[in-house]
Every structure is written in C-alpha cells, then in structure tokens.
Amino acid sequence: MSPNPLEKRQRKGNLTRSRCLLLWRKSPVSEKRIFAIVGLPVLHSRSPQIYQQLFRIENRELIYTRLAVQRISEAISVMDDLGISGYNITAPFKKNVLRHLNEVSEPARKMCAVNTVVRKDGKLVGYNTDIDGVIGALQSNGIELSGNSAVVIGAGGAGRAATFGLLKTGAKVILVNRSVEKAEKIAKSFGCEFAPMENLADVVKNAKIIVSALPAGVDVIADEWLTPNHVLLDANYHSEILKNKAGKRGATFIGGESWLIHQAIPAYRHFTGSQKKMKIPKIIDFNSSMKNIALVGFMGVGKSFVGKSLAKLLGWKYIDTDDEIVEKTGKSISQIFSEYGESEFREMEREVIQSVVRQKCAVISCGGGVVLDQVNRRQLIDNSLTVWIYAPVKTALSRIDLTSRPLLSRNVSAVELEAEKIFRKRRDLYAEVSDLVVINKRWSSQKTAELIYEEVCSAFGHLW
Predict the structure, then answer these.
(1) pLDDT tens, position by position, 280-324
(2) How confident is the model at residue 350 (pLDDT cuts 50, 70, 90)?
(3) 328 in catalytic set
(4) 139 vs 54, 146, 167, 405, CA distance in Å?
(5) 185 vs 406 pLDDT, higher one
(6) Catalytic, out of 94, 245, 291, 303
(7) Is 175 helix (H, G, I), strand (E, B) or coil?
(8) I need a surface site. Which of 16, 202, 240, 267 has the fewest CB within 10 A?
(9) Which domains does the chain have, with CATH numbers?
(10) Is the dihedral of CA 69, 72, 78, 82 positive or negative?
(11) Assessment of whether the complete model's pTM goes beyond 0.70
C-alpha cells in the first residue's frame, strides 16, 4: 500500500505533515472566543440574543451561536475544530453530557443535569445554572420563597432544577410526575415530598407557587384550580397556554423568558469570569426581515448538495452564488481568479450577494470565502437565516476536485495545511454570521438538509 503523501517527511529532520497540522491547530491565532447552545431542536432558542446583549454590556468581542446535533458526543468532538470555548446545553442532552466532562459542580452532579460547559485549563467543567434561573425568576418578581408551599410538575432536567432551587431557598416542595417512581426517587434524594399526577388538583389548590416544567403543549392544570393567590412559573417560553389560564383566574404568571435570562447570567460569568453586576437583558425575537436561508461554510462541506435538497423540501428556489457569477461573466471561477485575481472576484461576489439576499423563499449556497467581506457579512446577518455547514477539513478535501480550487496548491503534500490555514482564517467569520451550525461529516447531504428543514419548521414554521 502506498504511503499517504501527507505523512511523508519532505527532508530528513523535517516534521511530518500531520505534526505540522497539529502544531498549526494549537498555535496562537487572532480569533474570537466562540460559545454556542447545543440541542435538538435548537434553532428556537433565544439564548444568542441574550448573550449578545451581555457581551455588548461589557464590550466583549465574543460570538454566540446554535449547534444542532443528533448526539452530544458530536458537539464535544468538534469543540477544537470550531474553536468553542463553552456550551449551554439544552434538551435532550443535559444528562448525557455528564459522561464527557472532567469535572462537574456538586449541584449539577446531584441533579444529574448540566446546562453549562466551560473549557478550563484543558478540562471540560459542567455546571447547572437552571437553579439560579428558577430562583431569580421568582425573586425578581417579588415572590417570597422561604416557608411558602410549592409544587413542581415534571421531573425532567428543568423540574429537578426547580425542585433543588426552591428547597435551597427554604420553600416546602412537592414534586409531581406521571412516573411516580421517578418522582419518589428524586424526592428522596433531594429531601422533599412527592405525589402522583392523580393528586395534582389537591396539591395545586394547597400550594402558593406552581412551577410547570413540562414540554410545550402539555396541559395538566385545570382553569378552576387556579386562584388570584397562586403564582405560576412556566419553564417553557414557547407556549401561552398557562399564561392564558393564569390571566383568566387572576393568578400571577411568570414566563419562561425570565427563567432563561436569570440562568444565563451565572452561565455568562462561568464563560467570562466576570463578577460585575449585570443589567437584566431582554428577550429579542428573530429578525423578522429574514427572507431566505443562506448556507455558508468551507469548500467541500456540501453546501450545494444540501442546498438543493433543502430547497426541494421547502418548495423554494435554489441559488448558487458561484453559479451566478459564472453565468454573469461566462467564465469559470478558476478562470476569473487566474485572469482577474481574487480581489476582482470578491467584488463580483459582493454584487451577487447584495442581489440574492433580498430574494424571498430562496435557499442560497454561498461561496466558501463570502464571509471575508464585511459588507457580505452584514447582508447575511440582516437578511438571511444563515446556516454554517461544517465538516472537518480533511473530510471536505476528500469531496472536491482540487484542480478546480484556485486558492489551493497543486502540491498534494501541502494542500491540507494550506486548507487548514484558510479555514482558521474564516472560522470566526462563519460563526459570526451563523444562526445555526450543523455538522455534515458522517451523514448524507439529504439527512443534513432534513435536519435543517426540521429545525426551521420547529422554530418558526408559522412565519414561513
């Protein structure tokens, strides 16, 4: 079997190509710290809007995005390549992430749930700030917790956090869950009472504080159980069922947005080390002016294949910016680079981007270097739902014809190192414009397109 040319030494005493790549990846580069929320689905999350506000308050040039994965191990495995400094973890990974961490805070370990992961001195450390979220949401609304009776409905990650947090403040807590065995196990571990779902009516009537930690759309509280003396906190901020019930009965309602914000502040402190008193940010919805979906990412990650499949699923038109330039000039991309140079190509690309991002109901596959131009980045942020498709550089290179890529050397032994340098230069820029990151390494492009489609429909299918 012929040796891999990337593994050959060029001269006696030289480093192997793989060693050069390792040193390059670990070498200091001018880049921003990137954070992300990980989940499935995750595009609905408003965490990026919250953290971007917190970053601006302290003038920190940090980036926050969303990462959709099928398994939490995928998110852990790409931390180095994507330059991730920390994650927020949401459903369904709060428990499964524990096995991938080097250290876990005592409250998180006790709850078997982590919602914040930070890289510290080469280790992955896990915390649970949902505890702070539930306490902050109630106390910031003037609710006295110590000595008051509370019922927590649901024994998942949010329910365990609510139970733990309320007990911490001195509240008297009863945990209610469909699986009474699960409720009993958690109650014994935390030192509180539990009850079966059949007894919920009586438990609610005798409680002051009601915390619903159930999925969106699950309705177990009858209107007539509520009174003006009740305080109702809904961990879910995508449903208004409980808000409407509380309004009808005159009960105090606290939405999940408040919980989300109050858990984000301690997570932000774990990310940044800041101990300053923070101004409470506001929940901001998605940019309502978004007209289309733009796909960005390195060469060979599958933007064209994914884009065509996604456009078909949505019933939208498909646009490839490189194809637009070729049609406009009558020349291939390689010819344009050869005859006019990269700067001229970028001018053409800027004109195309300014035109296509204004089109509605389109899936736009962008060239790998589109993010290098600040005007392009602004256009994408302002007009498009931008998805960063990621694949490891080695995987991406295996998918393309190198002779058609003008920025890469024809020297096979040098091409991977060159590609790594180009990717590292663009990595922060991909993250900066992205609303969502997906990994297209092991899957077919069709499956990646289906993942994006499901995320879009889950997040705001009612808008599109």
Answers:
(1) 877 766 555 678 999 999 999 999 999 999 999 999 999 999 999
(2) very high
(3) no
(4) 21, 11, 14, 58
(5) 185
(6) 94
(7) strand
(8) 202
(9) 34-127 (3.40.50.10860), 132-254 (3.40.50.720), 287-460 (3.40.50.300)
(10) positive
(11) yes
